[in-house]
């Protein structure tokens, strides 16, 4: 199997499994930190996975056209580091708080583990692309926008309680300034992940 055929298969898997897992969550729930119906779209986990699934569909549709190669590479780079934050957050923050067993239950097994690792591996091992400094910064935009929406919702509507909380990740449990700091750090993590992925990819394809 050549590299192109491998990438086609990987992108089909990313798209099909992600949409299937999301529908599973929508209609049946998906374990800890999940909601049925369209309320599931409040989670960065779900949005980052769907973002990568859409990118996979775009790649499948356009990868045969040379004029879109740079555009597709930037999308793949952005998607890989955006979703890998999901994996890192679960491993180092949410897992210790809620328990790894629950963080990898149901649809979240695919959202928190399988799809993030697939997207990261695809970029690192198959892309021959070196992002510019501007592209590295621009790739942080999805995380930045999510943080603005998350904190903005809390500022406007308050934290709330129980199942009606607007702080479903618990980032402001130490106060709003701590929540802002956490999101700044998460943006920094995304950026550093992008730098690391770019170096790994360049090393493997030199």
Order of helices and strands: HHHHHHHH
- Count of the separate structural domains: 1
Strand content: under 5%
How much is the average pLDDT? 90
N-to-C span: 22 Å
Shape: globular
Helix run count: 8
Give the low-confidence spans.
none
Q: Roughly what percent helix? A: over 70%
Strand pairing plus helix content: what structural class?
mainly alpha
Q: Got a strand count?
A: 0
The profile of the biggest β sheet is: none
Radius of gyration from CA coordinates: 17 Å
Describe this protein's structure:
- There is one protein chain.
- The model has no long low-confidence stretch (mean pLDDT 90).
- The protein has one domain (3-204).
- The protein is mainly alpha-helical and 206 residues long.
- It contains eight helices and no strands.
- The chain has helices at 3-28, 44-62, 69-98, 100-103, 108-126, 133-138, 141-157, 176-204.
């Amino acid at each position: 199997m050549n590299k192109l055929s491998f990438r086609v298969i990987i992108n089909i898997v990313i798209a099909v499994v992600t949409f299937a897992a999301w529908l599973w969550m929508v209609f049946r729930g998906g374990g800890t930190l999940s909601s049925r119906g369209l309320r599931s779209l409040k989670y960065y986990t779900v949005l980052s996975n769907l973002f990568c699934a859409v990118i996979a569909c775009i790649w499948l549709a356009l990868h045969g056209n040379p004029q879109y190669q740079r555009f597709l590479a930037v999308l793949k780079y952005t998607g890989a580091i955006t979703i890998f934050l999901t994996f890192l957050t679960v491993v180092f923050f949410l897992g210790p708080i809620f328990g790894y067993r629950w963080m990898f239950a149901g649809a979240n097994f695919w959202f928190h583990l399988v799809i993030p690792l697939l997207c990261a591996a695809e970029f690192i091992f198959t892309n021959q692309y070196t992002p510019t400094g501007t592209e590295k910064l621009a790739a942080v935009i999805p995380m930045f926008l999510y943080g603005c929406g998350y904190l903005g919702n809390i500022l406007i509507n308050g934290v709330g309680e129980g199942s009606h909380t607007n702080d479903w990740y618990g980032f402001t449990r130490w106060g709003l300034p701590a929540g802002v700091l956490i999101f700044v750090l998460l943006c920094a993590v995304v950026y550093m992940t992008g730098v690391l992925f770019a170096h790994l990819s360049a090393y493997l394809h030199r």
